[in-house]
Amino acid sequence: MSFQAPKGTFDWLPPRSEQVLAVREALVGPARLAGYGYIETPVFEDTQLFARGVGESTDIVSKEMYTFPDKAGRSLTLRPEGTASVVRAVLQHGLHNGQLPVKLWYSGSQFRYERAQKGRYRHFWQVGAEALGSEDPALDAEVVLLGAQGFASLGLTGVRLLINSLGDKTCRPTYRAALQEFLRGLDLDADTRARIEINPLRVLDDKRPEVQAQLTGAPLVIDHLCAACKSYHEEVRALLSAAGVAYEDDPRLVRGLDYYTRTTFEFVHDGLGSQSAVGGGGRYDGLSEMLGGPPLPSVGWALGVDRTVLAMEAEGLIDDTAPGRVQVYGVPLGDEARRRMFLLVTELRQAGVSADLAYGGKGLKGAMKGADRSGARFALILGERDLAAQAVQLKDLTTAEQTEVPLAQVVDVLKGKVQ
Ligand code: HAM
């Protein structure tokens, strides 16, 4: 019997996996420069954290959570996103009692039982940035800008930024009622009619053409914003324009999580087919209170690492020609040489030179093939005669040039050549 990775999951393997690591680093680079500190939270949490935080009426909570009882009967859930956990951690450790905003970034696996397809996985990777405890349009603009810079730093040119405001607790209820009234007048199936009562904004996001066709005249939240939300939104937009960030107003942008207020945004890439969102986020002023904390107006995003890699692939930015695994490859011929080479390779690594050697007692031909496959620039060939002379043959694999170097000097010689 042989095993396969579970449906909706996959493995990142070398050399691509090295690029994935670099993508994660690059996406959060700008946030780190803006003072965001690293946070790690557990991969599973109390189920209620997500039920309350993300919202019972969302697809994530109602259909997609990996929920299980532990051996003591607690209901736990593999995290479907990072924001609720970050707020939980901030409240639990009282970070909000210090300087505000609290700025945090994270990187990790997320789990959603979704219909698996290209770009949509059951186990995927996000990096995220959250700024908690401050209501200031400049903070919204900062967060959006840092995301845009993250994508740009990878050389991506096809990422578009969509922006909207979802209002606050003053104006959203009036809008919700107006939207519900409009939706109740449409010809919709029973499930969708039920959704009108629970989460009418999500109906706007229904992708089916027969539903979309009826939504043309639907009231838009942007036309129902109260004065405070309106001027806040204008200020965020003005700051983004001043910073040279290109964005598109998308009055129909609603997000799949319930905690959003005011600023919401998504980064999309057109080279990905139907799963076009490479990142998303917004302001979540009420989330802390939903989780039993004090008011903590906050804003953040999460960027999808796997989809970003697909976007880079679509733009031809992924280079799968394997870079050299190591710089130097040892070819020992015989037992005595193997013992000496083992020490030499260890010395090289300690000196900061990446090195490997031929294992398994291979002969010269097999070992040289290993040297080629490793991508190393130099091979070190050590035979009995070399040992007797306390020397080693240093072969430049790009030019085939071979020189003899005293064993006592080879680490220094190589250090000079590879750096
Ligand atoms: P989200 O829009 O659900 O937001 O996810 C953010 C990003 O994660 C998406 O834009 C997408 O790139 C990636 N993603 C989501 N689901 C999948 C999947 N099944 N397979 C592959 N990639 C996926 C959030 O998670 C919020 N916590 C963002 C946030 C932070 N809002 C405020 N702070």
Task: Describe the secondary structure blueprint for this structure.
Layout: H1 16-33, E1 37-38, E2 44-46, H2 47-53, H3 59-63, E3 66-69, E4 75-78, H4 83-93, E5 102-111, E6 123-132, H5 137-153, E7 159-165, H6 172-184, H7 190-198, H8 200-203, H9 209-214, H10 227-242, E8 248-249, E9 261-269, E10 277-283, H11 287-290, E11 298-304, H12 305-314, E12 328-332, H13 335-350, E13 355-357, H14 364-374, E14 378-382, H15 384-388, E15 391-396, E16 402-406, H16 410-418
This protein binds histidyl-adenosine monophosphate (HAM).
Histidyl-adenosine monophosphate is lined by residues 81-83, 112, 114, 120-121, 124, 126, 128, 130, 256-257, 277-282, 284, 300-302, 304, 306-307.
Q: Which features characterize this protein?
A:
419 residues, alpha+beta, BirA Bifunctional Protein, domain 2, Rossmann fold, 5-stranded mixed beta sheet, elongated, binds histidyl-adenosine monophosphate
Q: In a nutshell, what does this entry contain?
A:
This protein is of the alpha+beta class. The protein has 16 helices and 16 strands. 38% of the residues lie in helices and 21% in strands.
* Gap from first CA to last CA: 47 Å
Derived from helix and strand composition plus strand pairing, the structural class reads: alpha+beta
The CATH architecture term of the largest domain is 2-Layer Sandwich
Compute the gyration radius: what is it?
28 Å
Stretches with pLDDT under 50, minimum 5 residues: none
How many DSSP helices?
16
Hetero groups bound? histidyl-adenosine monophosphate
